[in-house]
């Protein structure tokens, strides 16, 4: 985006994200057009945007918040605050909450959310708390890559740009806190009685408070007309009303506002509101399609709701129902699992030419002698999920050391260590010595499929996922599709107490071997194909100490983690068979 002109970016905001954009002065003191009030109720046309930035090519990009752009920004001016004053605001909306974050030249953060639904009206309010503003109805924010009059640019936080993360609905607990803060701000200092927990003074103060935030409040007066029109059109659209009837309802509303919309503006107003409603609906459908495309087996409606930004359950239910219908249906109800369960229709197929297949298992060595239980084949995915400080990196480096002299070279992609830290870690190994490593190391934290070596050993340390965890399966499949004769060993964070890494079962669907590492020194084989013996190695565990950051000391060798099946008993039973296992069938 930063190689694009301001015009190109403004058009992307308009056409792709449906934002109402206006040209903004580089000194941040208003719009370059005489008035932008009109665009609080409708998005500009492509022609208007092109004219503006052709006339003012260096104009900053202002985006009008509120219903017209389906956007709300929580504005944190960290540079105005002492360290002791930042904690309450960080607790209000932690950085871990997913969504785009724009950073101003001064160091402030705009955290972007979708404008609330269900008739909630939130007006822009400054200084709700020291250093904290909200940009909502009738607000404007400056967006990247705008450059101010001092030559300083607005930018996205790393990995938190619009291309990487979706704008999500603000979580209900956060929204409720914001509502409470706004109403408290608007009536601060008023003498009077308490109504619904707010100190409300005379009628003027009461009106001010409820102009700040109201729920299920539809006003057709000047200043609220555009938002009300959008909410009503959106409700009609979601309810399934046909477009001609929506136009009729919207036309009646436009003519009965106070004051009425000018006759010449009504078609554009209606079109803008319907376009927003259609965009919101199509965004949900597209998000669900992406989720379904990387889903294997069955999924619940609850799982689907966690993968999308619009979590309105009736709308979600209706959209899932539509995706089950017609010749282009992509899912069907999973009646075996019960109500609210679906399965992807998997009609794609690739024939496997097993008669002419050539090759053998790869001579790959593993830490703890895992090769005694698992055979590594070409194009295998191996997942190593570990809790923090469980030794994932040490495992991967030991794996690389054991295979340093193989004809297949190791390519190590590190998302955490720089060259100095990597050298210090590798100096802890005596074999190979620091000069004997053949492994190639690269700094990489995303888009690993783009750099996979198809016929080599690829080690990914680690696959970073901050939100949209359902996409783990997609990223792993992309890596799998790039492999030919090579393999990929992928590390993934695992939350304490969880059986799988981030992404759950999606993270091991493509894996031929999945290993879990627990803080405190315990490793368990969670999944294994290509058994090296007759026994399924799933459930085998080993306990260890990690010494010097690179050496594993075994405390208890391989045993079954459930404490019932003993490895010795299993292998003893295998000895009962005198012929090869292939002849047992």
Task: Please render the helix and strand layout as text.
Elements: H1 6-15, E1 20-24, H2 46-55, E2 60-64, E3 72-76, H3 83-92, E4 101-103, E5 109-114, E6 121-122, E7 125-129, E8 132-135, E9 140-143, E10 155-156, E11 168-169, H4 172-186, E12 193-195, E13 198-200, H5 203-212, E14 213-214, H6 225-238, H7 243-255, H8 266-293, E15 298-300, H9 301-306, H10 313-322, E16 331-333, E17 341-344, E18 381-386, H11 392-402, E19 410-414, H12 419-426, E20 440-443, E21 457-461, H13 472-482, E22 487-493, E23 511-518, E24 522-528, E25 540-547, E26 551-560, H14 567-574
Parallel strand pairs: 5-11, 18-22, 18-23, 19-20, 19-21, 21-22
Antiparallel strand pairs: 1-2, 2-9, 3-5, 3-8, 4-5, 4-10, 6-14, 7-8, 12-13, 15-17, 16-17, 23-24, 24-25, 25-26
Helix pairs in contact: 1-2, 4-5, 6-7, 6-8, 7-8, 8-10
Shape: globular
Cα(first) to Cα(last) distance is 60 Å
Radius of gyration: 29 Å
Report the sheet-strand fraction. Answer: 15-25%
Name of the CATH architecture of the largest domain: 3-Layer(aba) Sandwich
Structural class computed from helices and strand pairing: alpha+beta
Plain-language structure description:
With 585 residues, the chain is of the alpha+beta class. The protein folds into three domains: 6-186, no CATH class; 225-344, no CATH class; 362-584, P-loop containing nucleotide triphosphate hydrolases (Rossmann fold). 28% of the residues lie in helices and 21% in strands. It contains 14 helices and 26 strands. The strands form six sheets. It has a nine-stranded mixed beta sheet with strand order 20-19-21-22-18-23-24-25-26. Strands 3, 4, 5, 7, 8, 10 and 11 form a seven-stranded mixed beta sheet that branches. The chain has a three-stranded antiparallel beta sheet with strand order 1-2-9. A hairpin with a 2-residue loop joins strand 12 (193-195) and strand 13. The protein is globular.
């Amino acid at each position: 985006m930063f190689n694009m002109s301001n015009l190109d970016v403004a058009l992307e905001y308009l056409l792709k994200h449906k934002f109402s954009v206006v040209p903004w002065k580089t000194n941040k003191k208003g719009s370059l057009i005489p008035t932008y009030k009109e665009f609080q109720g409708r998005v500009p046309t492509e022609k208007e945007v092109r004219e503006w930035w052709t006339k003012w090519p260096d104009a900053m990009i202002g985006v009008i918040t509120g219903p017209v752009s389906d956007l709300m920004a929580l504005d944190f001016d960290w540079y105005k605050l002492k360290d002791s004053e930042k904690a309450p605001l960080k607790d209000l909306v932690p950085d871990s909450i997913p969504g785009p974050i724009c950073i101003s030249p001064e160091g402030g953060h705009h955290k972007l959310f979708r404008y609330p639904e269900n008739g909630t009206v939130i007006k822009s309010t400054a200084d709700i708390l020291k250093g904290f503003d909200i940009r909502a109805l009738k607000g404007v924010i400056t967006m990247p890559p705008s450059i101010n009059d001092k030559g300083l640019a607005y930018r996205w936080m790393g990995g938190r740009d619009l291309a990487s993360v979706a704008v999500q609905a603000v979580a209900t607990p956060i929204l409720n806190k914001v509502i409470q803060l706004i109403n408290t701000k608007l009536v601060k200092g008023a003498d009077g009685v308490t109504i619904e927990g707010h100190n409300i003074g005379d009628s003027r103060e009461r009106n001010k408070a409820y102009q700040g935030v109201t729920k299920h409040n539809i006003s057709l007066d000047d200043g609220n007309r555009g938002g009300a029109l959008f909410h009503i059109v959106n409700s009609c659209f979601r309810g399934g009303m046909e477009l001609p009837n929506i136009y009729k309802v919207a036309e009646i509303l436009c003519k009965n506002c106070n004051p009425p919309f000018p006759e010449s503006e009504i078609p554009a107003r209606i079109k803008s509101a319907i376009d927003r409603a259609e965009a919101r609906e199509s965004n949900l459908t597209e998000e669900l399609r992406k989720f379904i495309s990387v889903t294997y087996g069955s999924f619940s409606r609850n799982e689907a709701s966690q993968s999308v930004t619009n979590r309105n359950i009736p709308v979600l239910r209706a959209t899932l129902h539509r995706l089950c219908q017609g010749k282009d249906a992509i899912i069907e109800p999973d009646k075996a699992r019960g109500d609210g369960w679906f399965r992807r229709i998997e009609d794609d197929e690739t024939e496997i030419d097993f008669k002419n297949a050539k090759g053998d298992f790869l001579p790959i060595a593993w830490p703890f002698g895992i090769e005694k239980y698992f055979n590594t084949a070409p194009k295998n995915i191996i997942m190593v999920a570990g809790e923090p400080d469980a030794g994932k990196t040490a495992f991967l480096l030991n794996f690389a050391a054991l295979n340093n002299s193989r004809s297949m070279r190791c390519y190590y992609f590190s998302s955490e260590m720089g060259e100095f830290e990597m050298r210090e870690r590798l100096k802890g190994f005596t074999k190979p010595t620091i000069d004997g490593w053949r492994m190639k190391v690269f700094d990489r934290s995303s888009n690993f499929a783009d750099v996979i070596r198809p016929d080599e050993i690829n080690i990914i340390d680690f696959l970073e996922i901050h939100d949209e965890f359902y996409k783990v399966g997609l990223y792993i499949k992309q890596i799998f599709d790039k492999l030919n004769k090579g393999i990929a060993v992928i590390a993934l964070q695992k939350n304490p107490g969880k059986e799988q890494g981030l992404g759950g079962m999606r993270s091991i669907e493509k894996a031929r071997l999945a290993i879990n590492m627990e803080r405190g020194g315990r490793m368990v084989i969670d999944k294994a194909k290509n058994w090296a013996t007759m026994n399924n190695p799933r459930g085998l565990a080993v306990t260890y100490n990690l010494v010097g950051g690179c050496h594993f000391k075994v405390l208890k060798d391989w045993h079954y983690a459930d404490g019932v099946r003993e490895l010795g008993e299993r292998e003893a039973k295998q000895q009962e068979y005198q012929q090869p296992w292939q002849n047992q069938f």
